[in-house]
Every structure is written in C-alpha cells, then in structure tokens.
Design brief:
By secondary structure, the protein is an all-alpha fold. It has helices at residues 2-7, 18-30, 43-56, 65-73, 116-128, 138-146, 166-179, 187-197, 214-227, 237-240, 246-255, 276-286, 295-304, 322-334, 351-355, and strands at 101-103, 109-111, 343-344, 349-350. The strands form two sheets. The chain has a two-stranded antiparallel ribbon with strand order 1-2. Helix 3 runs parallel beside helix 5. The protein is globular. Mean pLDDT is 90; it is low at 1-7.
Length: 357
C-alpha cells in the first residue's frame, strides 16, 4: 500500500490522458532523467521514441525541428577519402555522440562503426520532422550496408560483428524502404532467412529454431510487407501458401491475447506487457486481422499501465519508461483513439511521416 501511494498511480482511470502524455514526452525531449544515463549510447533510439511519439499526438510544434535535423545529421558516418571504404565499415548513423568515437590503445580517438538500429531510428526521425531524405548520400550508406548481409540472408548490425537476427533484417528493410532504394540488400536472401525463422507453432523466432516471440514476429512480418512479399490479401489461401504459413501465424498471434486481463504477451506462458499490444497487435494489423482483437479488453489492460502523470509502464503498477510509453501510444493509435495520428505499422512511424498524408 505504501508503494502504491509512492508511485501515485490512477489505475481506475477509464480515459486516455493525452495531454499528460504529451507533457511526459516534452520532459523527455528537454532532458532525459538520470536513470537513462546508462543508455546514453542509444540516445538516437530514445530520441526516436520521443519525437515519433510527439508526432503520433500531432504535437511536433513542441520541438525545434531544425535543431533535431542538425543533431541527427551530425551523427552520420562518412568515408574519410571520398567513397573509399575502410575495413568494410558501415556508413550509417551512430547511436550517440559518445559512441561516435572510440580510443585506441594509445588513447587516440578513432572513428567507430555506425549501427543498423541507430540508422533506422535516424531516418525515422528525419522523415518524421519533414527532412528530405534524398539529400542523404544514400549510395554510400546502402553500398556499405549490403556488406553487412550474411550468406544466409540475415544482417550484422555493425561491421565489426554482433548478433545476427530478424531485428536487423527489419532495420535493413526499413532503411531501404525509407530511402526508396533496395540496392542495400538482397531481398530474396532476406526472405529465405525470414521463412526459416517461422516456428512449428506459427510464430517467428529471432533466428531459425528459436522460440517464437512477439517482437521477432513483428520484424518478420513487417519486413516481408516492406520488401513487397506480403500483399493486401495475405489472409487468402493463395497468399498464405506463397511465402509463410499465414493461418498458423494468425492462430499463434491471436493466442497471445490473454483472457485474464486483455493484454498481449510476447511468448507463451509469459505475463502480458504493454509493448506487445504493438508488436503482436501491429502484426495483426499488417495481416488485416486486427478485427479479431478484443479491443475493449486490450484498452482496459493498457489503461492499468498508464501512469497518472503521463507515460506507460511495462506492467500495471510499475513506473513508466520511454520504450513502453511509445509502444503504448502506438497501441492506442491502432485502437483509433481520438486525436491520435494513424500509424504506418510496418515502418513504426506515423502514416503522415511515412507517406506525407
């Protein structure tokens, strides 16, 4: 009881507190709280949550767009000598100022490698604030990105190595889609990797043979959609046998909505979690199967995760964080909450930012 008073939740609220959420995002824009200091290397990703979140609320007038553009562009990596690539480096975007350089054994600063996820976030931010992406040297970015693709179709996130899984296939597909140039990846190889990640139960693991997971499943389905392998009739019998097993995927996805509280869980026998309202709910939207979601129950669960002063938490009665807040906002956009901009689900940004509607 004492903790409940300290957290000051209003879990009985039946309304979506739009104005408080905007204020929460404004605070994050002005300066991240101390607990986020350990995530400084991911500052560009945190900025994506804040700026795209404000766009969902049609509140981009609260930020200095020109300052945002200049900051994001300053994080792009460029070859030292024209178009000469050094050691296979990827020329995308760094995650933060501190990750832009590293020190060698003598303490001298050396250029570090940029990251696929940071590059996705950078381009998403730039599109959101209205920057013309044709001004970016996409030829160098995409040519160097293609070197990150592995023989099995997956991607490394950085030229020096790292995990290879569906997250980075999605980043590569989203980058190519936003730049309107697919020379940065071999789509057929990527498609085969995605197909190999579908599990016996219909969901997708991050790598072939891994447990089905809501986030991995979104990355798989969104990537196929962006690459043009998943059409508008994905639920039809013909389409479902073409690329992936859609009926099995649909069954797995719908089973992730819990009867107990209406929320979505990311894996079998796990607690419901705010973010999966987007990861799994968004997957169903791409499949045009979101009509099967119990929207009233989902909305009820999400409101139990809404913080009294703005933002969303992972679970009910836990303090909010910017990651779960953003995907909570996305979930309410999918639920057609009045006053929120619609989403381009497969890109993870507003439809206005994606298509200029």
């Amino acid at each position: 009881m004492e903790d409940e008073e300290l957290w000051d939740f209003d879990s009985e609220s039946l309304s979506f507190e739009k104005d408080r959420h905007i204020y929460y995002l404004e605070m994050m824009y002005r300066g991240l709280p101390a607990p986020y200091q350990a995530q400084e290397i991911n500052r560009l990703t945190l900025a994506y949550f804040v700026i795209s979140g404000l766009d969902i609320f049609a509140a981009l007038d609260r930020i200095d767009k020109e300052a945002v553009i200049n900051w994001v562009l300053s994080l792009q990596a460029h070859p030292k000598n024209g178009r000469t690539f050094e050691n296979g480096q990827f020329y995308g975007f760094h995650g933060s100022r501190s990750s832009q350089f590293k020190s060698d054994n003598n303490g001298a600063a050396q250029l570090n490698g940029s990251h696929l996820a940071s590059t996705y976030c950078a381009l998403a931010i730039l599109k959101t604030v209205g920057y013309d992406l044709s001004q970016i040297d996409s030829e160098v970015l995409l040519k160097s990105m293609r070197t990150l693709q592995q023989p099995n179709g997956c991607f490394m996130p950085i030229h020096t190595g790292g995990e290879t899984d569906l997250r980075f296939v999605f980043c590569a597909a989203a980058i190519c889609s936003m730049l309107k140039n697919w020379t940065g990846m071999d789509r057929e190889k990527a498609k085969e990797f995605i197909r190999n990640c579908q599990s016996y139960d219909g969901g997708f693991g991050l790598i072939p043979g891994a447990e089905s997971h809501g986030g991995a499943t979104y990355c798989a389905v969104a990537s196929l959609k962006l690459m043009g392998f998943l059409g508008e009739d994905s639920l039809s019998e013909k389409a479902s046998s073409d690329v992936i097993n859609v009926p099995l995927l649909l069954d797995w996805s719908l089973q992730k909505q819990a009867f107990e509280d209406g929320g979505f869980r990311g894996r079998a026998n796990k607690p419901t979690d705010t973010c999966y309202a987007f990861w799994v709910g968004g997957t169903l939207r791409i499949l045009q199967a979101d009509k099967f979601i119990n929207e009233e129950a989902l909305r009820g669960f999400l409101l139990t995760c809404q913080y009294k002063y703005g933002g969303f938490s992972k679970f009910p009665r836990v303090l909010p964080d910017i990651y779960h807040s953003y995907y909570g906002f996305c979930a309410f956009s999918l639920l057609k909450e009045p006053g929120l901009n619609p989403l381009c689900v497969e890109l993870g940004i507003s439809a206005i930012a994606a298509f200029g509607l």
